[in-house]
Amino acid sequence: QVQLVxxxxxxxxxxxxxxxxxxxxxxxxxxxAMAWFRQAPGKERDSVAAITRSGSNGNYADxxxxxxxxxxxxxxxxxxxxxxxxxxxxxxVYYCAxxxxxxxYNYWGQGTQVTISS
Length: 118
Description:
Elements: E1 2-7, E2 10-13, E3 18-26, E4 31-39, E5 45-52, E6 59-60, E7 68-73, E8 78-83, E9 92-100, E10 107-108, E11 112-117
Parallel strand pairs: 2-11
Antiparallel strand pairs: 1-3, 3-8, 4-5, 4-9, 5-6, 7-8, 9-10, 9-11
């Protein structure tokens, strides 16, 4: 089993920045890839950014390209999401996910709220 704990959410004004962290514990050696998802109020959960354990192959949703950066620190078993130039439409609950021994994301964190005020 893998446990994921997110942190770093909060309330910021449009144009500001936040950095989310997701610390993994347990069978972290089984993790192949990690990702951040976002669920806006009344909407489905969508992928924001993903990265392999090696730190390569970062993928981003079109809506965040050039503003968000995903990175991984394997020594700390932590994945980060640096979010810059934040917009009100970035508001939502951000979830960390990990693919551990699976081709799909089978481990999820509890989510952290991000609210961007206009």
